[in-house]
Specification:
alpha+beta; 4-stranded antiparallel β-sheet; 23% strand; elongated
Length: 201
């Protein structure tokens, strides 16, 4: 047994370098995978932040009876997007704290595009959305968020169909025709219910 142990040849430098190379390649691939997953998670999280900001702007318009503007600007330092909320009227202390709290610039989202459904125009990276007159005048269209200007890996579409329809996130382009049809059916249904009530003398 002792002779067998003594006969074993030692590991050569070349073999050690091969093993170390394989370990380094595996670690590199794992690192890339983890980095990609973290980037995707950050992008999704920031997309949710944008969606919440849009819903907050709409809520403030309705609850505080104030015209609201939501501005997206490109941060020249980081290349990310900065969100600012502007209101026409002063708010109560609780709402003011929520509306005016400082927001960190978005880092994973580097491109914002708004395709205005009514005007047929586009705003890129300097986007201003309006929530005015209790919902009668609102920006309506598709807000596209992406991680790059040219060939994005991740992108999200947010549909702004106009009040009273909800602001929703979508994996693809927004279907405003379907939304309008649903709104018309809902309006007709409500009108039928109202006309069915007996009139009081």
């Amino acid at each position: 047994m002792l002779r067998l142990l003594l006969r074993k040849r030692p590991i050569t430098l070349v073999e050690m370098l091969i093993v170390m190379g394989l370990v380094a390649i595996t670690a590199g691939l794992l690192g890339l995978s983890v980095h990609k997953l973290l980037h995707e998670q950050r992008f999704r999280s920031e997309s949710n932040t944008v969606l919440e900001s849009l819903r907050l702007a709409q809520d403030l318009m309705l609850i505080a009876d104030s015209d609201v503007h939501l501005l997206f600007t490109k941060d020249s330092r980081t290349g990310g997007i900065v969100i600012n909320l502007q209101l026409e009227k002063p708010l109560t202390q609780g709402w003011a704290r929520e509306a005016m709290r400082p927001r960190k610039p978005l880092e994973a989202i580097k491109f914002v595009e708004f395709a205005d459904q009514r005007l047929g125009s586009k705003q890129i990276n300097q986007v201003q959305l309006h929530f005015l007159s209790g919902g009668t005048v609102m920006s309506q269209g598709t807000l596209r968020l992406a991680d790059s200007d040219y060939t994005p890996i991740y992108q999200t579409f947010i549909c702004l169909p106009g009040y009273p329809l909800p602001i929703v996130s979508s994996g693809g382009q927004c279907d405003f025709k379907g939304e309008r049809e649903m709104q018309e059916r809902l309006t007709e249904s409500i009108q039928r219910e109202i006309s069915a009530f007996p009139k009081t003398p």
